[in-house]
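hi! just following up on the protien thing from before. the input was this:
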Amino acid sequence: MTNAQTQVISAPKLGQMPDLAKRCAAIAQAAYPKDAAWSQAVFAQDLTTEKRVYALTYYEGRLVGYLGAIKVLDQVDITGIAIHPELQRRGLAFKLMAAFLATLESATEVFLEVRVSNVPAQGLYRKLGFKKIGVRPEYYTHPVEDALLMKAVISGD
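and the predicted 3d structure came back as:
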């Protein structure tokens, strides 16, 4: 996909991007199970909160994916990632995550949760160096489901 571009933006610049909360919410609602996606109001608050970082993927000039994270010193917690369903299975999520991880300093620890049933996402995360380190019982709602806790450490290569 040569027409895909990714940019990484930190707060407070995130909060200055018109309609970003609305566009991220629309992608999340299309990509996540019913009632599991963040609302536009939650995105709007998150985008203006200190220590937030987003990687945004555009395809043919249109925002089609995002990765949200909290970055504090040498630790990053990925809070969400979504690619619009029309463009899933084309490598965009891998490129989005790889671009984001490439911005992090060596030895940064990166954490995320993933539904135990989301085997494709688990495979993607393993390709990027994440390893399972635990389980969070009943972490997700809509439907209720356990989460795998995964971690990667950015190497200094």
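The beta strands are 4-10, 52-59, 62-72, 75-83, 109-115, 131-140, 145-153.
The longest strand covers residues 62-72.
cheers
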